[in-house]
Design brief:
By secondary structure, the chain is mainly β. The protein has four domains: 30-228, Jelly Rolls (Sandwich); 252-335, Immunoglobulin-like (Sandwich); 350-434, Sandwich (Immunoglobulin-like); 448-576, Immunoglobulin-like, CATH 2.60.40. Helices cover 1% and strands 39% of the residues. Strands 1, 4, 5, 7, 12, 13, 14 and 16 form an eight-stranded antiparallel beta sheet that branches. An eight-stranded antiparallel beta sheet has the order 2-3-6-15-8-9-10-11, with no helix packed on it. Strand 34 and strand 35 (490-495) form a beta hairpin. It is elongated, with a radius of gyration of 57 Å.
Length: 584
């Protein structure tokens, strides 16, 4: 049920009073407390020491309080107003307490404590059958709980309300009479806190009020009952907690290797609070001689230092601050794993291949293990047939590229597997590879002294001076083009020595009167030749050779009719001047 009226404006808070309480007390969670022991005046002191002092208006004093003096409210305009403070802006938990003595039967909404406007409140009566109630405005709206019967007149009754973040509860004389689930926080209010009235007209209380307390935590029923027995400012006697926690939720046990079992369980509950758990263990599945081994505060525990290959059983119980022990959880068992002493197999095969002058690539067949292979150790030594191996790398795969090596150098390798227990398997076979030589980027020098001489009608013999090289000359390429001035050379052969015979050439045609036919000519550069086949032209350019017509030479000399015949050579062509040549 929601509040029936709403006021647009609220009573402004008065300035903080400078008067300090006479007997400041430090009580956990107590943010404001009023015993009304002043006996006169309008200043109402906060005994917590937090200076949440108030101003009384329209009230009178009485010496017939629950404990000492009390404040009398007239039911029309009497009220105590406390300025807003951060300590009073309660959102996640609270407890409101007060002793009330109605002098007339309360009807409708009658405020005992109210953080305006309706932030949180405790009511002597409500519009729900005039029964007492409590509530507030949460982030999901205004909510209320109500008592079971109206308050008696001219009798002291203790009212209390709590909120713990999950539930709102109403207590009458220390006994819970109503509750309401509420899991969202209270909305923050910045208005005044008032006692005996609130921001709504007509909601003032008529009667005596004494021992008002405001906490920022939810008190238990036992704590509320303890407060009922003492005046404000007097620490309540210790609460005797005799309620044991519940049994923990389901317990599970899981082996984590050969020497550890991990436990987890559901949290237990308690009327005050669970402070820890007792973990008990015995050896063997179905064992019953449990012994306490740990007292964790959380809901999990790792039991270490156990014996491999052994079964263990566990149970857990909760404890509270009073030493009450709850019931046991279920029994959970787990067996540690047996130690792994079996090594992996040796990798069946290993290959090593040179990839460059500084790298050798390895590849091997996977090893096997009774549990699992976790990696490989790669070892190396220098030289073919070496034996002084040293580990150079560990990896989980079955390939490895060994870089940063020396060119033209032999390296030998072997590989072994390892498992999670650290067992090392046997070695693979040894694989050896030699890195490649450093790349040769220096070209040989050009050959010098090239000569070409016709040898018959279809052959030219070449000779030259050897080239040099930083590593070594391995051979020569022979290139040729047709014509004394040609430039389109093509390779016609190779030679590993400094000479070469170019065979299978075409001979020139027969001579004609006056002009010697141009011989079939082949050049490595450009050069003309005389009638006897020797180089004669003084204006020669490079090297060349000419193939003379068949049958036109005897004993190396050109056959002609007259010793007076002369020949001129120009760019590979020969011309006869005065002699006649026999012919058809």
């Amino acid at each position: 049920m929601f509040r029936s009226t709403f006021i647009a404006s609220i009573v402004a808070g008065s300035a903080l009073l400078s008067a300090a309480p006479a007997h400041a007390q430090t009580i956990p969670g107590l943010v404001a407390a009023y015993g009304f022991e002043e006996g006169s005046g309008t200043t109402i002191g906060d005994v917590t020491g937090q200076s949440n002092n108030g101003v009384a208006s329209g009230t009178t004093w009485s010496t017939a309080g629950k404990f000492g003096n009390a404040l009398v409210f007239n039911g029309t305009n009497a009220v105590v107003t406390v300025p807003n403070a951060a300590a009073l802006q309660l959102t996640t938990a609270m407890t409101l307490e007060a002793w009330v003595f109605p002098t007339t039967a309360p009807t409708g909404w009658r405020a005992v404590i109210d953080k305006n406007v309706d932030g949180y409140y405790l009511m002597a009566s409500t519009d729900n059958g005039n029964r007492p109630g409590a509530g507030g405005t949460w982030t999901n709206g205004n909510k209320n709980v109500f008592g079971t019967s109206v308050l008696p007149v001219n009798t002291w009754t203790h009212l209390a309300s709590t909120f713990d973040g999950t539930t709102v509860r109403l207590f009458v004389n220390g006994v819970q009479v109503a509750s309401l689930a509420q899991t969202v926080p209270l909305a923050t209010t910045t208005a005044t806190l008032q006692i005996g009235g609130d921001a709504y007209t007509g909601e003032n209380f008529a009667g005596l009020i004494d021992e008002v307390r405001v906490y920022n935590r939810a008190l238990s029923a036992a704590e509320i009952q303890a407060d009922m027995g003492v005046a404000v400012g007097t620490p309540a006697p210790p609460v005797l907690d005799t309620v044991a926690p519940s049994a923990p939720g389901t317990l599970t046990a899981t082996a984590a290797g050969s020497t550890q079992v991990n436990l987890a369980w559901g949290a237990a509950t308690d009327n005050v609070g669970v402070t820890g758990y007792r973990v008990e263990r015995c050896a063997g599945a179905g064992c019953s001689t449990f012994t306490q081994i740990a007292t964790p505060t959380g809901t999990s525990f790792g039991d270490t230092g156990l014996t491999a290959g052994t079964s263990y059983s566990y149970r857990v119980r909760a404890a509270d601050a009073a030493g009450n022990l709850g019931g046991y959880s279920n029994v959970a068992s787990a067996a540690t794993t047996a130690p792994d002493t079996t090594p992996p197999s040796a990798p069946p095969s290993l290959s090593a291949t040179a990839a460059s002058a500084t790298q050798i690539n390895l590849s091997w067949t996977a090893a096997t293990d009774n549990v699992a292979v976790t990696g490989y150790r790669v070892e190396r030594c220098q030289g073919d047939g070496c034996t002084t191996f040293a580990q150079i790398f560990t990896l989980s795969g079955t390939t490895f590229n060994n870089t940063g090596l020396t060119a033209s150098t032999s390296y030998s390798y072997r590989v072994r597997a390892v498992d999670a227990a650290g067992n090392l398997g046997g070695y693979s076979s040894v694989a050896t590879a030699t890195t490649l030589a450093t790349p040769d980027t220096t070209a040989p020098s050009a050959p010098t002294g090239l000569s070409a001489k016709a040898s018959g009608s279809t052959q030219v013999d070449l000779a030259w001076t050897a080239s040099t090289d930083n590593v070594g000359v391995t051979g020569y390429q022979i290139l040729r083009c047709t014509g004394s001035t040609c430039t389109t050379f093509a390779q016609v052969g190779t030679s590993s020595v400094t000479n070469f015979s170019n065979t299978g050439l075409a001979a020139s045609g027969p001579g004609r009167p006056e002009t010697w036919p141009s011989p079939t000519s082949s050049s490595h550069q450009r050069e003309s030749y005389g009638a006897d086949g020797e180089a004669q032209c003084p204006d020669q350019i490079g090297w060349g050779f000419a193939i003379m017509p068949p049958g036109e030479k005897e004993n190396g000399r050109q056959r002609h009719e007259s010793d007076a015949s002369t020949f001129e050579c120009h760019a590979g062509y020969c011309t006869k001047k005065r002699a006649r040549f026999p012919g058809p």
